[in-house]
Amino acid sequence: MSSVLVGFTFLLLPLLGSAQFLDMACGIRAPNPLTWRAQYAKIAGLTSSPWMAFIHSTDNRFICGGTLITNRHVLTAAHCFLDDTELVARLGEYDREANDMCHGSYCTYRIEAYVETAFKHRLYNNVSMIHDIAILRLQKRVQYTDSLRPICIVTDTKWRRHIDALNPLTGTGWGKTEKENDSGKLRTVDLVRQRPEVCELYAQLTLTSKQFCAGNEYRNLCNGDSGGPVGALILFGKTKRFIQVGIASFTNRQCLMASSFTDVLSYVDWIRAVVNYHQ
């Protein structure tokens, strides 16, 4: 993840029904007892992203990012699948170089959640990067804690115009930095939405309506951030929740200007079908 601009989007979104999210326990952060800073980038708040999944192989190779969306499912990108590679989703991860510990009342406990089955969208195209979305079904259900909680997936398409108005969007990941191939601590970056033509110019991709373009001139997601989320903090009723808007899909070699993202709301029927059928 290259250099960042820090902030957040915070909008009041409508209450359109009783069940707006895939998992109603989603998107809630615990108070942050610590603030970390780095020389070149913003380190994510300790409690900012309890839904992040650090996806690695059984021989401990870092593969991609992802997000916990239910107590048994992780959302990621289809291109994160490698032939003959068994995947593990490490949940509750924040600082890869630190042991589990407590910071006041907030404790970080990692879980190595083995993947039982993976569902890649059947129309995924590794050239156009269309339908770059997948779901991992874990062998066992996980128990929610302050440091392990699902991200919000909006299930009502009536939210479309509100979600499309969220700008900038916040991305998180352990991807490549200015000096390292990947980051020890979870990092965050705010990305401004860009016209599709910007991705066509800098990422050499012609986007469809199920993708969107976002990025900044000197700040962007990078290698290793694939599969991770971009989203925004919203006010739902009286509760602040973080919703996932996109999945990091493709960028350019310099990790500058623009990246392509899979639009999550465009796939909500597919997500619900996979989750409901493979509980």
From TrEMBL:
SUPFAM superfamilies: Trypsin-like serine proteases. The lineage of its organism: Eukaryota, Metazoa, Ecdysozoa, Arthropoda, Hexapoda. The keyword Signal applies. CDD domains: Tryp_SPc (cd00190). InterPro entries: CLIP_Serine_Protease (IPR051333), Peptidase_S1_PA (IPR009003), Peptidase_S1_PA_chymotrypsin (IPR043504), Peptidase_S1A (IPR001314), Trypsin_dom (IPR001254), TRYPSIN_HIS (IPR018114). Its main location: secreted. Residues 1-19 form the signal peptide. It comes from the Eukaryota. Keywords: Disulfide bond, Hydrolase, Protease, Secreted, Serine protease, Signal, Zymogen. Coiled coil: none annotated. It is found in: Secreted. It comes from Drosophila erecta. GO terms for molecular function: serine-type endopeptidase activity. Residues 15-276 form the Peptidase S1 domain. One of its GO terms (cellular component) is extracellular region. This is GG16935. The keyword Disulfide bond applies. SMART domains: Tryp_SPc. One of its GO terms (biological process) is proteolysis.
